[in-house]
C-alpha cells in the first residue's frame, strides 16, 4: 500500500472506532481480516496512524475546527508528526486510494495549527470531565504532564535476576539498540522507531529462557519500592497475569513465601507459563473457587507485605492505550474507587502486626491514589502511613531523587517526571 492509501485506511478504521465506540485493537483486527491484500508492514503503519490520531484527538479537533476522523488524522500529521501542509496536500491527491484533496479550510488549519485559544484540557489531550481531577495531581506543569501522556511509549524490559543480569542482557540484545533504564537496576529500554513501534522482544531467545519480561520501568519501580525482602511472606492480592508477582519473586531471591491471587481466576491463567519460564520457585498461585471465596484464609494476619496492585482507570497507561483515554466514563472512576476500598479492606485482614500494605495504581487521578489511602486510613485505625523517605530507603536501589515526587501519602510517577508510565505507590503499616 502507498503511504497515502495507509492514511485513507487509518481514517476508515478511526471512523469505525468512533462511530461504533469500539476498542481500537478490535477495529484494527477486523480491518486487517477483511483486507487480505494489506501486508504486516501496512497493518503496523495503519495501527500507528490510528493510535497517534487517538493520542492527539482533542488538540487535533480543535486546531482543525472539525472532529471528523479525517480531521483527526490530518491534524495529527501536522501536530504530532510535524508535517508541513504541502506534504500533507501531496498525500491527499484523491487518486489511487489516497484521501480526497484538502479543502481550503483544511489547508488553512494545517498551516496555522493554532492552539493558543484552546482550553488546557485540549492542549493536554485529557478528557474535559477528567481535567479537574488530573490537574489536582500536579501543582505546575499540568499541561506538559498531559502532553507527555499523549506521547508514544518506549518498550521496557525487566531483567530477571533469577536467570540473568543487566550487563549480560545488554550484550545479548545489543542488536536491538538497548539503553539502560534510569531508575530500576533491572530495567532496559528500547525507544520506539520512526514507525512508532519497538522491537519484537518476544521472539528473542532470552525471552523464552526467562532472562527477561516486558514490563514498564514504572511498574518495576513500584515493585522495588514495595520493600519485599528475601524470606518474607508476601501476598500479591491483585496478581492478574503476574507481572508484579514475577518481579517480587526475583526480589525475594526465591526465599520466603509468595502467594498470588486475583478476584478473577481467569486472569491468573498466563501466570503458570510465565512462572515456569522465570525460574521462580517460591510462588503459590491461589485460585478463588467462586466469588466471595477467600483463597487465603490460612494466611490471615500473617503477611509481612500485601501488594495491592489495584484495579483502576489505568490513566497512567494512556501512552500505551490512547483509546482507553476517550472511552473511560465518569461512572467507571466511581466504580474503581469502590473496588479499591474493597480490596484494601481485604488486604488489611492479611497483614500481620507490623506488616505492610503496598498500594499501587497505574493512575494519575488523586481520587484513586491519595484519596483511596485516606479513605482506608479513616476506616482502619490500626494502620498508619509509612513516610515516603522510609519507603525510598527500604527499596532495593538508589531512589532518594524520587522524594520530589512525593504526594500526601505516597509517590506519583509519570511520563514527564520519571519517563515511565504514570504509577502511584503508597505504603501503610499495621501497628505491632
Ligand atoms: C492492575 S490489574 C493487576 C495487574 C497485575 N498485578 C500485573 O502486574 O500484571 C488489577 C487486578 O485486580 C483484580 N481485582 C479487582 N478487584 C479485586 C479484589 N477485590 N480482590 C482481588 N483482586 C481484584 C482484577 O481482576 C485485576 O486482575
From TrEMBL:
SAM-dependent MTase RsmB/NOP-type domain mapped to chain residues? 145-431
Binding residues for S-adenosyl-L-methionine: 262, 309
Checking SUPFAM superfamilies in the record gives: S-adenosyl-L-methionine-dependent methyltransferases
Which Gene3D superfamilies has this protein been placed in? Answer: Vaccinia Virus protein VP39 (3.40.50.150)
Q: Name one GO biological process term.
A: RNA methylation
The question of whether Methyltransferase is a record keyword is answered with yes
Task: Report the active site residues.
Answer: 362
Q: Which GO terms describe its molecular function?
A: RNA binding; RNA methyltransferase activity
Q: Tell me the Pfam families matching this sequence.
A: Methyltr_RsmB-F, RsmF-B_ferredox
Q: Tell me which InterPro entries the record gives.
A: MeTrfase_RsmB-F_NOP2_cat (IPR049560), MeTrfase_RsmB-F_NOP2_dom (IPR001678), RCMT (IPR023267), RsmB-like_ferredoxin (IPR054728), SAM-dependent_MTases_sf (IPR029063)
Q: Which PROSITE patterns match?
A: SAM_MT_RSMB_NOP
CDD domains on file = AdoMet_MTases
Cytoplasm is among the record's keywords? no
Superkingdom of source = Bacteria
Q: Which UniProt keywords apply?
A: Methyltransferase, RNA-binding, S-adenosyl-L-methionine, Transferase
**What PANTHER family does the database record attribute to this sequence?**
NOP2 YEAST -RELATED NOL1/NOP2/FMU SUN DOMAIN-CONTAINING, RIBOSOMAL RNA SMALL SUBUNIT METHYLTRANSFERASE B-RELATED
Q: Which family does it belong to?
A: Belongs to the class I-like SAM-binding methyltransferase superfamily. RsmB/NOP family.
> Which protein, by its recorded name, is this?
RsmB/NOP family class I SAM-dependent RNA methyltransferase
Q: Which organism is it from?
A: Bosea caraganae
Amino acid at each position: 500500500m502507498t503511504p497515502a492509501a495507509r492514511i485513507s485506511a487509518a481514517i476508515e478504521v478511526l471512523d469505525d472506532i468512533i462511530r461504533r465506540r469500539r476498542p481500537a485493537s478490535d477495529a484494527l483486527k477486523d480491518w486487517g481480516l477483511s483486507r487480505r491484500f494489506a501486508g504486516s508492514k501496512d497493518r503496523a503503519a495503519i495501527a500507528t496512524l490510528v493510535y497517534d490520531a487517538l493520542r492527539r484527538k482533542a488538540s487535533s479537533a480543535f486546531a482543525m475546527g472539525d472532529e471528523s476522523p479525517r480531521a483527526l488524522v490530518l491534524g495529527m500529521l501536522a501536530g504530532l508528526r510535524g508535517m508541513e501542509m504541502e506534504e500533507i496536500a501531496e498525500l491527499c491527491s484523491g487518486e489511487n486510494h489516497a484521501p480526497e484533496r484538502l479543502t481550503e479550510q483544511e489547508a488553512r488549519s494545517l498551516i496555522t495549527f493554532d492552539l493558543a485559544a484552546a482550553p488546557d484540557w485540549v492542549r493536554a489531550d485529557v478528557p474535559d470531565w477528567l481535567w479537574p481531577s488530573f490537574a489536582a495531581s500536579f501543582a505546575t506543569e499540568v499541561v506538559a504532564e498531559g502532553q507527555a501522556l499523549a506521547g508514544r511509549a518506549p518498550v521496557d524490559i525487566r531483567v530477571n535476576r533469577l536467570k540473568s543480569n543487566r550487563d549480560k542482557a545488554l550484550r545479548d540484545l545489543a542488536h536491538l539498540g538497548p539503553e539502560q533504564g534510569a531508575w530500576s537496576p533491572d530495567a532496559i529500554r528500547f525507544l520506539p522507531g520512526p514507525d512508532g513501534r519497538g522491537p519484537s522482544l518476544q521472539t528473542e531467545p532470552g525471552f523464552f529462557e526467562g532472562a527477561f519480561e516486558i514490563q514498564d520501568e514504572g511498574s518495576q519501580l513500584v515493585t522495588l519500592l514495595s520493600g519485599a525482602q528475601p524470606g518474607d511472606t508476601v501476598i500479591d492480592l491483585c496478581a492478574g497475569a503476574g507481572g508484579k508477582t514475577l518481579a517480587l519473586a526475583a526480589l525475594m531471591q526465591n526465599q520466603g513465601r509468595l502467594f498470588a491471587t486475583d478476584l478473577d481466576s481467569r486472569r491468573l491463567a498466563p501466570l503458570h507459563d510465565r512462572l515456569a519460564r522465570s525460574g521462580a520457585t517460591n510462588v503459590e498461585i491461589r485460585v478463588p473457587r467462586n466469588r466471595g471465596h477467600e483463597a487465603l484464609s490460612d494466611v490471615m494476619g500473617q503477611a509481612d507485605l500485601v501488594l495491592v496492585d489495584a484495579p483502576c482507570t489505568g490513566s497512567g497507561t494512556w501512552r500505551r492505550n490512547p483509546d482507553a483515554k476517550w472511552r473511560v466514563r465518569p461512572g467507571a472512576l466511581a466504580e474503581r474507587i469502590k473496588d479499591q476500598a474493597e480490596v484494601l479492606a481485604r488486604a488489611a485482614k492479611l497483614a500481620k502486626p507490623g506488616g505492610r500494605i503496598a498500594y499501587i495504581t497505574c493512575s494519575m487521578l488523586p481520587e484513586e491514589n491519595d484519596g483511596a489511602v485516606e479513605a482506608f486510613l479513616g476506616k482502619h485505625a490500626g494502620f498508619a502511613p509509612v513516610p515516603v523517605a522510609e519507603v525510598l530507603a527500604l527499596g532495593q536501589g538508589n531512589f532518594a531523587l524520587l522524594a520530589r515526587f512525593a504526594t500526601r501519602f505516597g509517590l506519583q510517577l509519570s511520563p514527564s517526571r520519571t519517563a515511565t508510565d504514570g504509577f502511584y505507590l503508597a505504603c501503610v503499616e499495621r501497628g505491632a
